[in-house]
Amino acid sequence: MRIERVDDKTVKCFLSNEELDEYDIDYKDFVLRSEKAREVVQEIIVQAEETVGYKPPRYSFDLQIMMLPEQGLVLTFSEREPESEPLIECLREMKKVLLRAKEKVGMAGKAGQESQSGAPSAPAEQAENVPSVPVRKPEFAIFAFSAIRDVMNFARVLPANLRVDSALYEMEDTYFLCLGKGHAAYERYSRACIQAMEFGSLYGAEENLLLRLEEHGRCLIQAKAIRKLRG
User: Fold this and answer.
1) pLDDT in tens, 151-168
2) 182 lies in some domain
3) Does residue 132 belong to any structural domain of this protein?
């Protein structure tokens, strides 16, 4: 493992094919953020601290992966400021809102049952103020799936009338679904993104990732992938 310091917030790590075999890990593990990949990344960060004085990011980092044919991989770690994660923050906030709404529905049903049984019902609660999502709402995200059946299962749970944009790519035995807001309401689009992370993982929300897929991957479905995969 060879680690090089690029600047205060960036380091590069070269992993040879022999080291990848030793770790029993490959490109796909890093793309899908597997448990093995997380362990290797943590080991790299520790070694970077010891060998080149690297300080781990305060919030999170971007991980770029470059394959070197017949040699190995180069991993580049660069610190990501919190404001560069609008999609993650937006989805977290939306998930909280959806869970809160689900809890309220359950409480309302329980109160109705108590009322019908003659039990005194609790006074109605005032509606909570729904926390606002970030001002800049991302309208595009890419999700990675380890198998095509996972993408199909995800497509089947989405409403048939969900008007999102979608395209499917394949690269290194991994399937990438590009999901755009399209004409869908933002709440419905956010809900779809949350559901996508139950079947796969968030790959990113940057245009350069799509360009990378277009350049190095294979386009399987260029448009309306969700509708076509639903069958």
Assistant:
1) 999 999 999 899 999 999
2) yes
3) no
Same domain as 6, residue 71: yes
The string over 133-172, giving b where at least 16 C-beta atoms fall within 10 Å of a residue's C-beta and e elsewhere, is beeeebbbbbbbbbeeebbbebbeebeeebebbbbbbbbe
Indicate if 226 and 145 belong to the same structural domain: yes
Average pLDDT of the segment spanning 64-76: 85
Structure token digits, residue 138: 């991302």
- Bridge partners (DSSP) of residue 174 are 171
Q: What SS3 string covers the chain?
A: CEEEEEECCEEEEEEEHHHHHHHCCCHHHHHCCCHHHHHHHHHHHHHHHHHHCCCCCCCEEEEEEEEECCCEEEEEEEEECHHHCHHHHHHHHHHHHHHHHHHHHHHHHHHHHHHHCCCCCCCCCCCCCCCCCCCCCCCEEEEEECCHHHHHHHHHHCCCCCCCEEEEEEECCEEEEEEECCCCCHHHHHHHHHHHHHHCEEEECCHHHHHHHHHHCEEEECCCHHHHHHC
Number of residues in the chain: 231
Instruction: Give a yes or no: residue 106 inside a domain.
Output: no
Q: In terms of residue numbers, what domain contains 175?
A: 140-230
209: domain CATH number is 3.30.70.1950
Write the pLDDT tens digit of every residue in 104-141: 555 555 555 555 555 444 443 333 444 444 445 678 88
Number of separate domains in the chain: 2
